[in-house]
Amino acid sequence: MTDSPRLELLPAVDVADGQAVRLTQGEAGTETGYGDPLSAAQDWVNGGAEWIHLVDLDAAFGRGSNAELLERVVKSVDIKVEMSGGIRDDESLERALATGCARVNIGTAALENPEWTAAAIAKHGDRVAVGLDVRGTTLSGRGWTRDGGDLWDVLARLDREGCSRYVVTDVKKDGMLSGPNTGLLMDVCEATDAAVVASGGISSLEDIAALRAIVDRGVEGAIVGKALYNRNFTLPQALDVAGRP
Ligand SMILES: O=C(O)c1ccccc1N[C@@H]1O[C@H](COP(=O)(O)O)[C@@H](O)[C@H]1O
């Protein structure tokens, strides 16, 4: 394992109503609270993270905004941040990028506003990733409450538009601690030359090892959420398995 290419790990800080939370299958109302997002982010920095995956859940659900708090989180850490949730127009995109985050994820807008998404990719290159949140092979947007088309059709369109990275979430796996959907991830890697970041389901160090084993297929990184908050393992342990920078 030590010779295999490393897997980037992105500990998650999902924010709802000003608190760090985890959801189960993205369902509103399933929140487990983990306190102050600034402290959560600092914990991941202290544990050796090189990335944080930072989500405004209220913006993703269209019920509010934690934009100022997310900006404070980005500015409080000296590591790379991937921001997502509610980035759907020029104003929200420019505001997110102006925080100094390394990149943003676009979800709903990639399904509902293809022209705007293509322009954002053309303008910002690999600072823009697209979140492909799927149930089976049907994409989901608006807080995972609305179907948004076929995964393979949308992937082909985004590839043509030059998207350089996809964050692939199996919604049914998210927050379930039941292992990642490696079959889906490998199918996506097979269909695109773009980088793939895995999201959803990691529960153990073995899951991280399984994802590291498919880095050479195109899986660049993995988002880890509930398993870290529940202390199934520590971030340093996870980084040992994923490979350190
Ligand atoms: O991360 C979650 O648990 C989550 C749950 C429900 C909806 C979205 C969620 N997260 C991420 O939010 C963005 C999508 O936001 P938008 O559609 O662009 O407003 C995407 O990265 C999701 O993975």
Automatic annotation (TrEMBL):
Statement: the UniProt record of this protein carries the keyword Oxidoreductase: no
Record flagged with keyword Metal-binding: no
Record's catalysed reaction(s): 1-(5-phospho-beta-D-ribosyl)-5-[(5-phospho-beta-D-ribosylamino)methylideneamino]imidazole-4-carboxamide = 5-[(5-phospho-1-deoxy-D-ribulos-1-ylimino)methylamino]-1-(5-phospho-beta-D-ribosyl)imidazole-4-carboxamide
Protein location: Cytoplasm
Residues forming coiled coils: none
Catalytic EC class: isomerase
Gene3D superfamilies to which the protein is assigned, alphabetical: Aldolase class I
Pfam families for this protein: His_biosynth
Biological pathway: Amino-acid biosynthesis; L-histidine biosynthesis; L-histidine from 5-phospho-alpha-D-ribose 1-diphosphate: step 4/9
InterPro entries given in the database record: Aldolase_TIM (IPR013785), His_biosynth (IPR006062), HisA/PriA (IPR023016), HisA/PriA_Actinobacteria (IPR010188), Isoase_HisA-like (IPR044524), RibuloseP-bd_barrel (IPR011060)
Annotated catalytic residues: 14, 133
Family label: Belongs to the HisA/HisF family.
HAMAP family listed in its UniProt record: HisA
Annotated protein name in UniProt: 1-(5-phosphoribosyl)-5-[(5-phosphoribosylamino)methylideneamino] imidazole-4-carboxamide isomerase
Taxonomic classification: Bacteria, Bacillati, Actinomycetota, Actinomycetes, Micrococcales
